């Protein structure tokens, strides 16, 4: 009987240490939360990095997982409807003064991540698991150090010009590099006809063209061919990223190659 009681207490203690009910909607936040929480597989990713969150619809299995979550981290503005759940929308912690064109791709601005997203995640996790607040802060400090190191390399470049993208995921990322951004989805109206679109783009003196892994490449391929300019592929969600900082470095390298004509 005594052994059964001890065993029960043991399992209660083990369950109290579990982070299995943390859910993140997209891979960048999964990587951030996982690094802050520690090396625990229990942090759940709702949408894989190959999935386009703008067009994804929740499955029954997703609803079950979300219903069990102690805390859900979402970007807001890009995921499927989560109004039935208690969600921490990280967009709500970005000052509206800094939001441009209602662009919700906040994780691709290193400064948003450093000053708003990581502190918010640490704060919200600490509210749910107060006993691990110091651990969260220590792990976040390491991640912030990685971002600072990236920023030193990132800001060392002295760039100028205009890039063309299909979808404006990297608007903030390019802006921090002092590059102007035009995008097919909004900056130009595809419905006017591809010929007129090409003529408009030619007048912009585009220095590089980018598509994204998760987006259609149809228009970009046509534009690339007409301009006789190779396009490069960016990945806002980190298909091959092992850590959050990998998303920055991998895309930064692709941008560098594009600006150096593939070299």
UniProtKB/TrEMBL annotation:
Highest taxon above the source species: Bacteria
Matches recorded under Pfam families: ZnuA (PF01297)
Cellular component terms per the entry's GO annotation: cell envelope
Any GO BP annotation: metal ion transport
Broad class of the protein's primary localization: other
GO MF entry, a single one: metal ion binding
Alphabetical keyword list: Metal-binding, Signal, Transport
Localization per Swiss-Prot or TrEMBL: Cell envelope
Coiled-coil annotated spans: none
Name used for this protein in its record: Zinc transport system substrate-binding protein
Stored PANTHER family: HIGH-AFFINITY ZINC UPTAKE SYSTEM PROTEIN ZNUA-RELATED (PTHR42953), METAL-BINDING PROTEIN HI_0362-RELATED (PTHR42953:SF1)
SUPFAM superfamilies associated with the record: Helical backbone' metal receptor
Keyword Lipoprotein: no
Transport as UniProt keyword: yes
Native source organism of the sequence: Thermosipho japonicus
